[in-house]
TrEMBL record:
Span of domain Ketopantoate reductase N-terminal: 6-153
Gene3D superfamilies: N-(1-d-carboxylethyl)-l-norvaline Dehydrogenase, domain 2, NAD(P)-binding Rossmann-like Domain
Single GO BP term: pantothenate biosynthetic process
Annotated protein name in UniProt: 2-dehydropantoate 2-reductase
Lineage of the species this protein comes from: Eukaryota, Cryptophyceae, Pyrenomonadales, Geminigeraceae, Guillardia
Origin species: Guillardia theta (strain CCMP2712) (Cryptophyte)
Length: 309
């Protein structure tokens, strides 16, 4: 296993967890932080996880990207609405061989990065996990944790490099021969299970376990998922995402609060464009009928406008 210099840009729950696991594996990890900066420098990082707790009394955390310099890997885990603005931060860490791994939910993430960075250096990560930040410098990993990696140009040799990055860590890794396929596959979960709970906030909010146990909400999630599959199939042409292949997504354990619901409840800016808007725009461009998916997304966009989030 090689040891790499890694910059984590976006030190929220996802960035802290996967950055922490890379630190645990022996890599030189620096967290670019804002909210957690003082706590990380004072008390370190604490991870509670189904895969084993880990505490770091000291971590490298900075508030200015100029304190990081050139790295081997940028782990980019910002909220998708901050993606465009964060490009300048990424540029501050780039060298000729620096690679970018975007572990961000949504559709069109890598193409956004491709307008500014070398295409062969861009990777996407689809994290199938339940992770929340409990307080500054503390992360709670509740379930799952596997990341599926894809390369922007679907280069298998490059994919081997991201596998090498996580070798020796406690992170379960899979690779995808087609990044676009895996993006649509993740959207089969993101759109129904981020969208429906956020809509239900008006009723006091619901968690994912309610969706999978209530027959009407489960049916709605299934119908939305089938619409996403239909759009993805059209976009992928010869590749298929079968609704049956997504059945496990409706068997989620426990009362997990997805990120869109948390942001809405806490009055924070919501991730709408990449997670909801771009997939719907693609469906319309392909002229695919997707009434359930369109209804959920339209309500989410309306909530965002009304709440000014």
């Amino acid at each position: 296993m090689s040891n790499f210099r890694i910059a984590v840009i976006g030190s929220g729950a996802v960035g802290l967890y996967y950055g922490g696991r890379l630190l645990e594996a022996g890599h030189d990890v620096t967290f670019l932080a804002r909210r957690d900066l003082d706590r990380l420098n004072k008390d370190g990082l604490r991870i509670k996880s189904v895969d084993g707790d880990v505490n770091f009394a000291q971590v490298k955390a900075v508030g200015d990207v100029t304190e990081i310099g050139e790295v081997d890997w940028v782990l980019l885990s910002v909220k998708s609405y901050a993606l465009e603005a964060c490009k300048e931060l990424v540029k501050g860490c780039m060298g000729p061989q620096t690679r970018i791994l975007a572990v961000i939910n949504g559709f069109g993430i890598e193409s956004c990065l491709a307008s500014d960075f070398p295409h062969d250096k861009i990777f996407g990560g689809m994290a199938f996990t339940c992770i929340n930040r409990e307080s500054d410098g503390e992360v709670n990993h509740l379930k799952y944790g596997t990341i599926t990696f894809g390369h922007y140009k679907d280069d298998k040799d490059e994919l081997a490099k991201v596998v090498d990055l996580f070798e020796g860590s406690k992170v379960k890794v899979t690779t995808s021969d087609c990044l676009l396929y895996s993006r649509w596959e993740k959207l089969c979960w993101n759109i129904p299970f981020n969208g429906c709970p956020a809509i239900a906030v008006a009723m006091g909010g619901i968690t994912t376990d309610i969706i999978v146990t209530d027959p009407d909400l489960r049916l709605l999630a299934r119908k939305v998922m089938e619409d996403v599959v239909k759009v993805g199939n059209e976009d992928l042409e010869t590749r298929n995402i079968s609704p049956e292949n997504e059945a496990d997504n409706l068997a989620l354990p426990g009362p997990y609060r997805p990120s869109t619901m948390i942001d809405l409840v806490e009055g924070k800016q919501m991730e709408v464009e990449y997670m909801f808007g771009n997939p719907l725009e693609r469906a319309r461009a392909l002229q695919v009928s997707c009434g359930y998916m369109e209804s959920v997304i339209s309500m989410i966009k309306g909530i965002q406008r009304i709440r000014k989030l």
